[in-house]
Amino acid sequence: MEQGKGVLRWVIVMAAAVALGLGGGEWTTVKAGDEIFECAADGKIEKKISANAQLEEFSCFFKRWEGKNTLHFKVGVKNVSDKPQRYRVNIFLDNGKAVGGLIPQKTKDGLVKPGETASFVYPVPDMESKPASIELMIKSMD
Question: Which of 26, 77, 89, 141 is the most buried (most CB within 10 A)?
Answer without folding.
Answer: 77
